[in-house]
Design a protein that fits this description.
- The chain is of the alpha+beta class and about 550 residues long.
- It contains 15 helices and 21 strands.
- The radius of gyration is 41 Å and the shape is extended.
Length: about 550
């Protein structure tokens, strides 16, 4: 129906016709009803005009839809639907093209709202399924690329008298959480997990009810982690969020905890991938060699640029191509993860420290942070690398002069700061650094006891040095009597002359004058011998010594 040709005076009629059309009343069985409504609306508009004092001026036939016009447009609509305006067609087509089907729950949503839909409870309720091992656990399929699985855990708590607090809810599902995380860790070794608690709240003053989610930060779980240490911090963070929400003046009160969603995600550790240009402030220091590679082997080129310095074009791969196969990368995949650098150190008998880069938005400068990887065993061949990132990409560079890179960051003076590669201590002169490396840093080590080394115990017997024994057995016995004593004293000021300000001296300003004491004698085998005594007087110090001698 061409409703756009109507003007302001018959907008109510147009709205009525459009509503009828949307209700699919355009079939012939509703013709009489439609014509009758149109004539009634026309008569109502004429009467309204007379009541407003605008006279009996008639409107133009082109500005008011009459029953006859409705009949004519009705025929056009039924006979030739292809005559609809192109703008109407385009609008319908565009709305249909913008919609996309959710691959998990088969719900059609606009493309721009797909991400929000995937996070919504509507989507989660559509794709939920039961877990085979636990009756109170449901599985939720996810469309997120890094999401492995989502567990929805409910409590089996049933009581007519007790209210299930957040602490009680988490305590009831702790064993299930343990087993679910163990299942994921066993399959993926390392996972990143975050938790979302869903609960119902009520605002009694306004009689409002609503559901809120409380999400906490991600936690990293690896094989062998002690969950008894990690779980209390998780529970504390969740309960603190709920408590702060209730106390901050929102007026909402907890009614019921519905469930806890456990989102298990893939863990993607830091790894160098492809070339990233250095920030200008780091580049101007000329302390870093950044090889412009087009592959994922930036770690290889960074190490080669440190081992085989190029006389010119040090930032090009072609300067190191002849030494490409001189390094051992057995069982190390590219791009190299920071966690795999220790393997490379063992295979190539060298040590590596890796530093990171952090942008200080306050001072608008880049600062060196870390180390992200600090070698456990300093070797004669040692390299310092810089790890920079951009979005999901990472890149390794070789630090050819660590002192120049860090001098202005560590000291406000213009003097060079020398950094020890072994312990990261800084020195003001190169001589001090060399002396430290020769006598301290590289010569201090820990010798663990060995089974082959022998030592004599208290009984003069030879035993392996890696066995710990206890010889002073008498010190395990409880002493029969213990005395606990305490003195009280006044702090009286001391009057005296002033000391020479040009010489170092100590000035006595107060004197402790004891005025009372108390002591308690504790017997370990019979409390009848335990006794407490106290005394107040100027001679309390002398009195204390006299009483102690009499014991």
């Amino acid at each position: 129906m061409d409703a756009l040709s109507c003007n302001l005076y018959n907008m109510e009629l147009v709205e009525l016709v459009e509503n009828i059309e949307s209700m699919e009343l355009m079939s012939s069985q509703h013709d009489e009803e439609l014509y009758e409504l149109c004539d009634k609306m026309e008569q109502t508009q004429v009467e309204t005009t007379i009541q407003k004092g605008e006279g009996s001026r008639k409107r133009s036939a082109s500005t008011l839809l009459s029953g006859e016009e409705i009949k004519r447009k009705k025929k056009l609509h039924l006979v030739a639907p292809s005559t609809l305006s192109s703008s109407t067609k385009n609008t319908v087509s565009t709305e249909f093209d913008d919609k996309i089907e959710c691959p998990q729950c088969q719900v059609h949503v606009l493309k721009k709202y797909l991400t929000n839909h995937v996070k919504s409870n509507t989507h989660k309720n559509n794709v939920i399924r039961r877990d085979n091992d636990f009756s109170n656990v449901q599985l939720i399929d996810s469309a997120f690329g890094n999401r492995l699985v989502t567990y929805r855990v409910k409590s089996n708590f049933i009581s007519d008298h007790l209210f299930e607090t957040p602490e009680l809810f988490l305590k009831n599902i702790t064993s299930v959480m343990y087993k679910l995380l163990e299942r994921s860790i066993l399959e993926h070794s390392v996972v990143k997990v975050n938790f979302i608690l869903n609960a119902n709240f009520i605002q009694e003053t306004k009689n409002l009810r609503n559901t809120f989610d409380f999400q906490i930060s991600n936690y990293l779980f690896c094989q062998g982690d002690d969950k008894d240490i990690i779980f209390p911090s998780i529970f504390t963070e969740i309960t603190n969020k709920m408590t702060n929400f209730e106390k901050k003046g929102s007026g909402w009160s907890l009614v019921k905890i519905n469930h806890l969603d456990i989102n298990v995600n893939k863990f993607n550790p830091l790894r160098g991938s492809s070339y990233i240009d250095l920030p200008l402030d780091i580049k101007y220091k000329k302390a870093v060699i950044n090889v412009q590679n087009n592959d994922h082997e930036c770690f290889r080129w960074a190490v080669l640029s440190g081992l085989y310095p190029a006389t010119h074009s040090s930032n090009r791969v072609s300067s190191y191509i002849t030494q490409k196969n001189k390094l051992n990368f057995d069982n190390i995949s590219f791009p190299v993860k920071i966690n795999d650098i220790h393997k490379f150190e063992k295979l190539n008998n060298m040590s590596i420290n890796v530093f990171g880069l952090h942008y200080d938005s306050l001072n608008k400068t880049n600062k060196i942070v870390g180390p992200l990887h600090f070698t456990k065993h300093g070797k004669t061949t040692h390299l310092n690398l810089l790890y920079i990132s951009q979005g999901t990409k990472g890149h390794y560079c070789f630090i050819k002069n660590l002192s120049r890179l860090l001098s202005k960051q560590l000291s406000t003076s213009e003097h060079v700061v020398h950094i020890c590669d072994g312990c990261l201590l800084k020195f003001t002169s190169l001589d001090n650094l060399k002396r430290h490396q020769e006598n301290d840093c590289f010569n201090v080590c820990t010798n663990l006891p060995s089974e082959n080394d022998r030592k004599r115990n208290w009984f003069n017997e030879l035993i392996p040095s890696n066995q710990i024994s206890f010889n002073n057995f008498e010190r395990k016995l409880r002493v029969p009597f213990v005395i606990y004593a305490d003195f009280e004293a006044f702090l009286n000021p001391i009057e005296g002359c002033f000391n020479n300000p040009n010489q170092s001296s100590t000035a006595n300003v107060q004197k402790h004058e004891m005025y009372s004491f108390g002591y308690y004698i504790k017997c370990s085998y019979n409390d009848n011998f335990s006794v407490y005594r106290s005394y107040t007087g100027k001679d309390c110090a002398l009195k204390f010594m006299q009483l102690i001698k009499k014991i």
